[in-house]
Amino acid sequence: xxxxxxxxxxxxxxxxxxxxxxxxxxxxxxxxxxxxxxxxxxxxxxxxxxxxxxxxxxxxxxxxxxxxxxxxxxxxxxxxxxxxxxxxxxxxxxxxxxxxxxxxxxxxxxxxxxxxxxxxxxxxxxxxxxxxxxxxxxxxxxxxxxxxxxxxxxxxxxxxxxxxxxxxxxxxxxxxxxxxxxxxxxxxxxxxxxxxxxxxxxxxxxxxxxxxxxxxxxxxxx
Length: 222
Prior knowledge:
The chain has helices spanning 3-23, 28-33, 37-51, 55-77, 83-98, 103-119, 127-138, 142-166, 170-175, 185-189, 203-221. The termini are far apart. The mean pLDDT is 94. The chain is globular. The chain has 222 residues and is mainly α. Helix content is 74%, strand content 0%.
């Protein structure tokens, strides 16, 4: 699969997930289908960083659309920081670590920006930036990707478990078992053939806020 096909799969899964969240909250399959989206886009973000000719423009574009998307995201989910902010912090982490010779400082910069996604309460905090790092530094090695992906998942899932224990809400923890659906994205990502496919640089950037706004409008009308 080329990058364009991966984007189509990701936005289709995302749309199904958001429709399920708003209109069919008890439809497990719709929520599980949506777990494909974040890992696929985390992979594509790592690819974007790897191949972009101008990282500053890439970061600026991500920031602008994160701000644009924040409005419909808040209207629909009542949360201010959308997933594009998480990807933004991932890009900033990769840029900060790119030319850092000291391995300890490199790791600290990467983790620092990942933690910022928690501070700013983004969608997919911590896990999305860490997934981007895994895909970037694994450098297409499927074994490294699987091990890194699995490690990040269980570390973040473990942190979430401790939070649920602290707030005495194990129902919330059990309700998030759908997150295991994230692993369904790996076989799809492993089919990537390294080509871009049809150019559609702004397809996701515009589709993301527009589909959120459309679902919000439909929800109001209904």
